[in-house]
Amino acid sequence: MQNETILGLSKLDKAIIIIGGPLLGAIIGWFIQIISSWLIKVPFVPFGPFFEWIVSWNSSWVSIIGVIAGLIAGILFALYAFSESLKMTITDQEVTMKRYDKEVRLQKREISAIYMDRKDIVVLGQKGEELYRAQTDVKQPKIEAAFLGHRFPWKPQDPYQSDYQRWVAEHPDFPASVNSLLAAREKALKEDDEKEAAILRKDLADKGAVIRDEDKRQYVRMIRG
Fold first, then answer.
1. How distant, in Å, are the alpha carbons of 24, 41, 130, 146, 155 from that of 88?
2. CA atoms of 69 and 180, how far apart (whole Å)
3. pTM exceeding 0.85
């Protein structure tokens, strides 16, 4: 049996999600009329007519229906939380990243550096290209110890830190196609469209551009060669 380390949600985290989500949903459901009557008094509250409709119900079944709906919502939240959480399985030969039921397997020989960019784990290839990036809730010391324990090339920071340039429209050092994608991504960042920004990051990676975000500003480096 090969030696492996698994990083992800702790047992306590899992227990809180499994028990806490449905329990909180049930509690909210039980008091849904009281909560709704309070919310409709708040100016400009979203879905005001919906809460007024709940308050208008005159039935002892309201709380029971609310509990059932809350339990279902809590279970769905728990399933989403497990799916959204990054799971890393590290061996002496490879690392497997699994998130949203998508699994990426990277061999150690493909990797030149692994580091943390705030809450993101970043894996770079031998040419400095970004092989993988995802957010994780696991603390950096634990991640660092795991990768070093399996002799992966862990770095305290991005080894290409000094190569990034802040992007501005029609940047003269970048190809027109890259500038166009960066402009689209800047718009997505300003609109908090994380899904579109992630897709555009991958499109830019295909063109040899690596992105680092700071306060919705994009810093870019191009893969050489």
1. 29, 46, 17, 10, 17
2. 45
3. no
